[in-house]
Write a structure and sequence with these properties.
This protein has 389 residues and is α/β, with parallel strands linked by helices. It folds into 2 domains: 26-263, Aspartate Aminotransferase, domain 2; 266-388, Aspartate Aminotransferase, domain 1. It contains 9 helices and 12 strands. The chain has helices at residues 41-58, 72-84, 97-109, 206-214, 248-264, 267-287, 313-316, 320-336, 363-388, and strands spanning 65-70, 90-94, 115-119, 136-140, 164-167, 184-188, 199-204, 228-229, 232-233, 291-293, 305-310, 352-356. The strands form 3 sheets. Strands 1-7-6-5-4-2-3 form a 7-stranded mixed β-sheet, with helices on both faces. The longest helix is centred in the C-terminal third of the chain and has 26 residues, at 363-388. The radius of gyration is 22 Å and the shape is globular.
Length: 389
């Protein structure tokens, strides 16, 4: 097939760090509080602004606590697990690499004895009907590396006794999160906001905060994880007084991203932009015979980390290493043409493509990308057929 004539204006489709917001430039950071302590009055004000803007945009209830953590979503979720788990039995849902990591930590590091775990292969989701929310539940709302998300929160009881703990790093700002169903929620600035990496957000419901106050784990907690002081929590941590030194450049970039969200109409618009990018891909998949969604159930298709599998018979006949090489060749062609960067599937996932469709991606760029995927696939397939002849 002929090479497409129209390219995405912004060819950044990486699933993290993700594309910056439209129109971003380094001038957005000119008000960053540099060479000043993050514990100074202006420093704490900046950090509190990040928390307050998140609460307002996302509709996080007033009685939920919000804090900024180091180490991105990973640091935030580890902090929650090490502080909260062990008080009762836990059900763990694992269907992609990061939720599998949480399961490994629970079994091998925290060494909890009362653990039920429900696993599924890439493209599938764990059986939500088996989950007992009177136990603690650990899961990913949106599997970044598999493109599989929970379809809703209906499986979580309103009168549950356990804590629901959601790694929602690829979900927040792309879905309307049911906060009343969730007790712990974590995400990073680098995903749907497209802000700089290395910082995360941790939200605790009143029930989770009370658990943290009343329960003392049997294992020692590193300084970075300690959120209790005396008979209560370190409340300053939930008002912008971070436990370690944050990058104030990254803080400024996050504020800029949050202001952009506000300027386009808030959460409903960031959700709409993700839905539009997904819709463009879904329409292309429906009419394209060599590609399909990796998720087996359309109701679990992610709108952000859109994972695709190649279903062409010649590709499926290849060994996994050769499939990986095929996709790598496609990505090299796309990069050489400045049509798309970083669209290969996650390294531990089956060979395929992963397109980021978060709010900072222009849906028109997603539409422009799709003919380039057709072209790159045809080019690599033709080259392989020529080599085999």
């Amino acid at each position: 097939m002929s090479k497409p004539s129209v390219k995405p204006k912004t060819p950044f489709f990486s699933s993290g760090p993700c594309s910056k917001r439209p129109g971003w430039s380094v001038e957005a950071l000119e008000d960053a509080l540099l060479s000043r302590s993050h514990r100074s009055g202006p420093g704490k004000k900046k950090l509190k602004e990040v928390i307050d803007r998140h609460r307002a945009i996302l509709g996080i209830p007033d009685d939920y606590r919000i804090m900024i953590t180091a180490a991105s979503d990973t640091g935030a979720f580890e902090m929650a697990m090490w502080n909260l788990l062990g008080a009762r039995g836990v059900d763990v849902l694992a269907w992609e690499s990061f939720s599998s990591d949480w399961l490994k930590d629970i079994k091998s590091q925290l060494k909890l004895s009362d653990v039920n775990y429900y696993e599924a292969a890439y493209g599938d989701i764990a059986d939500l009907s088996k989950v007992d929310t009177d136990r603690d539940v650990v899961f990913a709302w949106n599997g970044t590396t598999s493109g599989v998300r929970v379809p809703n929160g209906d499986w979580i009881k309103d009168d549950r006794e356990g804590l629901t703990m959601a790694d929602a790093t690829s979900a927040v700002f792309a879905y309307d999160m049911p906060w009343e169903k969730l007790d712990v929620v974590t995400w990073s600035w680098q995903k749907v906001l497209g802000s700089e990496a290395a910082h995360g957000m941790l939200v605790l419901s009143p029930r989770a905060a009370q658990r943290m106050i009343e329960y003392t784990p049997s294992w020692p907690l590193p300084k970075f994880f300690r959120l209790k002081k005396g008979d209560g929590l370190i409340e300053g941590a939930f008002a912008g007084e971070t436990l370690n030194t944050p990058s104030m450049l990254a803080v400024e970039d996050c504020i800029d991203a949050l202001k952009w969200v506000e300027s386009i109409g808030g959460l409903k618009e960031t959700i709409k932009r993700s839905e539009q990018s997904y819709k463009a891909v879904a329409e292309w998949v429906a009419k394209t015979d060599w590609i399909d969604f990796l998720p087996s159930d359309p109701a679990t298709n992610s709108y952000t980390s859109i994972c695709l599998k190649i279903v062409d018979p010649a590709f499926e006949a290849l060994e996994e290493a050769d499939r990986q090489a095929f996709v790598k060749s496609m990505c090299k062609l796309l990069e050489a043409e400045d049509a798309a960067y970083d669209v290969a599937a996650y390294r531990a996932a089956p060979a395929g493509l992963r397109l980021w469709g978060g709010a900072t991606v222009d849906p028109k760029d997603m539409e422009a990308l799709l003919p380039w995927l057709d072209w790159a696939f045809a080019e690599v397939k033709a080259e392989q057929q020529k080599a085999a002849a």
